[in-house]
Amino acid sequence: MNDIIIGIDLGTTNSEVAIVESGKVTVIADAGKKILPSFVGIDDNGEILVGETACNQYLIYPERTVKSIKRLMGQDAQVAMAGQAYTPQEISAVILKRLKAIAENYAGRTIGKAVITVPAYFSDAQRQATHEAGQIAGLEVVRMINEPTAAALVYGTGPDEAKRMLVYDLGGGTFDVSVVGVQAGVVEVLSSHGDNHLGGDDFDQQIVDYILEHLKQQGIDITGHSKAMARVTRAAEKAKLVLSDEPFAQIEEEYLLEHQGTPIHLTLELARSAYEDMIADYINATLDAAHIALKGAKLTASDIDEIILVGGSTRTPCIRERLFDEFGFEPHGEVDPDLCVAMGAAMQAAMINGQDIGTVLVDVTPYTYGTSALGYLDGMPYPYQFIPIIHKNSVLPVHKSEAFMTHQDGQRQVDVRIYQGEDPDALNNIEIGEFMIEGLLDVPAGNIITLALDLDLNGILHVSAREKASGKEKTITINNAISRFAAEELADAKQRIDGLFGENADGEEGFASESAAAAEARQLIKKAESLFETVSSEDKEDMVGLIETIVAALEVGDDTGLREPVERLNDIIYYLES
Ligand code: AMP
């Protein structure tokens, strides 16, 4: 039996371990969780904590907990944990040791070899430190590969394909963007850029600031209360995750603390649009970095064939939207962006081990679904702007919702239309459903209607429109939202091609496949009929008689029988016209 080689993504915020078995890549779960927070700590009893438990104690006992150690790799530094000093390699080794144990527990045997991923920008010293961390953890690091390379391996290419990919990796604390070239399964990083201090944590901090400001307006300052701050920080991240799927998030924390003898409960709503404004500068910075990376590879946006999303923060919908606007196509996100790098590491490990690997298959929607709303098209106001809600390549099942506002005072109903397609003009997409939500509150314009789309693994799309203020709701179900369109597209194509062969939609032969003589006869009948109003009744009678004979011959396809009546009818017409 070959030695097992595991693939490890040793991340700043989270780490994962994966393995290839019988050609299939598996990210190994520990107690049901595939993601191990990159936190190390010492508990009350002096025991070592790794992952979730260490993360949980971080805000309360920061002096006993270490996070984001990756940032210090390769530096001649030490960190303090419960009064002891540790090198970055040692702390990283604790995480690696835990991942090794998770994999051993899963495989039921000892594991001694690993492929570990590192950021493309890592220097020799940083790579060397990672290698040492592996050794300390009892792992032979058989190879270190760049994170974007690992991600690109997962998405792969056919043997004869050459592609240029942009790997956009936005995690909790770091942002990296790389341009990679893939040819015949060989991945090469052409250029990389990024920001070591930009990520989902910054987004959380924006929400924390928003909450603190809200409390401050009530005369409450919680910044000196570590437990309350820990709860607010956690609530902020939770709200952020909700806003990736919903247009509003409710932030609620009961008994946050006591203020002048009264318990303080936090109740606050955050709209996605307000949140997107808070993080807009960060997203702009990532796009600027993407352009710098492109420049570094001497390429422009139009040279990129695919965009790969990596890192949990890429689930933020406006990131996808901005990339779509910038590059003109949907980025890939079908492989879990948190697990993609570890999966690539395991694939590389399997290749080194001579194992076969199948392609990574996931169920995704091949289409974008959305609705139409009053908006803009080419800079002009337009009533049918297409608003995508579920994007192409989303992993199934998927639930997404968006908020819309009525635009007239006292508007009591809204016509909801659902489209499949990607054109900014909804009318150029395929309408797949329409319904009215009626009996809305008699209120000024701006009444919020939330539209939710749920697409399940069977391609059934559930649509619901809900008036936020009253809870009034109307739902419809669209069966075969996916396959129906594949079938419809096929039917359209068939019709088009059949048409070229002169067949009608039912495959029956139409006029075009008739003989030239028959086609000429039909033309002649038309011409004769157009003269009826101007001819004598005698001539008309003759013409009608001849037409009847011609039609009889046409019906049985008797081209020879056409010849004489056609000739005679032609003579009459010639005579009448001259
Ligand atoms: P990573 O370092 O790649 O594991 O990414 C972790 C970051 O992704 C954290 O900041 C998470 O809060 C963030 N994240 C995870 N899931 C989501 C989501 N659904 N929407 C937005 N951010 C997310």
UniProtKB/TrEMBL annotation:
Pfam families: HSP70 (PF00012). The keyword Nucleotide-binding applies. The keyword ATP-binding applies. InterPro entries: ATPase_NBD, Heat_shock_70_CS, HSP70_peptide-bd_sf, Hsp_70_fam. Belongs to the heat shock protein 70 family. PANTHER family: HEAT SHOCK PROTEIN 70KDA. This is Hsp70 family protein.
